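Here's my example:
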Amino acid sequence: MSLFQGIRGRLGIASSRPDQLSYERPIFGNSVFTHFLLKGLRGEASRGSSGSGVITTRSLYDYVAKQTSEATEGQQSPQIYNVGGGNDQAPIFVVPKFDQPLKIRVQFQCEDDEKKIRPLTNDSVLKSGQHVGITFRPEDDCYVYILWWDSIGNVGRLFPNPKLTEGTGRVKANETYWLPSMEGERWYVLDDKPGEETVYLVASRARNPKLETLYDTLRNMSVAARQGSEGKKITGELEREINLMGFADYTAHKAANSASSATRKSLFESMSNEIKVSGAEAMYWVKFKHVSP
C-alpha cells in the first residue's frame, strides 16, 4: 500500500519510565499497557484523525500513554523513543472507516417501587425483586450482543435470544426489540444476591464469532464447571474481549434520570437515547447497584 512505502527508521514505545513498575489488571488479561496498546490498534487510537482511520506511531503512543496513566492513577507513564531516525507521524495501521455511523436507539429500563417505568442508569440503585428491561431499535441491519454480569461474577446472554431471533445477533433496521419479551410486558427480575450488576451492549457491523463461541462454550459446561476455574477462565475471556472494543458514543435526553412513564413503550418513544458506532464495532455498558430490600 502506498501509504506505507518509503518509511524508514525505528521508534520504540516502552510501557513505563525506568523507575516505575508496569501494572496488570485481572479484568484486562494483560498488562495495563498491553491492553490499551491492543485497544488502540483496534481503532481507538484513530479517533480524531480527521476521519482518515490512519493510526500513526504518535497517535498510538498518545492514546496508550493517556489511558495507561489514567488507569494507574499516574503511577505508570509510557515513553516513546526515537531509536533510529523514525518519523513519529509515520502510519502503522489503517482501521476501517464508514461514511455513516451505525446508530441504535437503546434504553435500559427499570420499574420503581411505585410501578413507574424509569430509565436504568449508572446512578440507579435497585432492590432484589425489582424489574429490569431493555429496548432497542437499530437504524440499519447489524449485529447486537447483550450480556449481563451479575453481582457474583456469573454471566448470562440476554441477546441473541432464540425466542426473539433465529439464534444469531443479527437485527433488522427500524425493528424494535423488547427484552425479555417482544411485547415489552415482561421483565428480568433481580435475584437475592446484592452487589454491582453490569449490562454490556455490543453493536457490530459484522457477526462476532469469538463472542458467540466463548458464550456457547460457557453455556455448554456443566453447572460445576461453570462455577470452577475453567468457567471463570471463559468468563474472563468474554469480558476481556468486550473491554478491548471501543466505547460507543452515547447521547441521552437531559431529563433521563427523572423521566417516568406508565409503560415501557411510552417511555421508549418519548426519550431520545442513542448509541453511535463510528467504526466496525463498539460497546456500551450500564453499571448499577443491586441492594437488599
Notes: The two ends are 61 Å apart (CA to CA). DSSP finds six helices and 19 strands in the chain. The longest strand covers residues 281-291. Residues 2 and 91 are 11 Å apart (CA to CA).
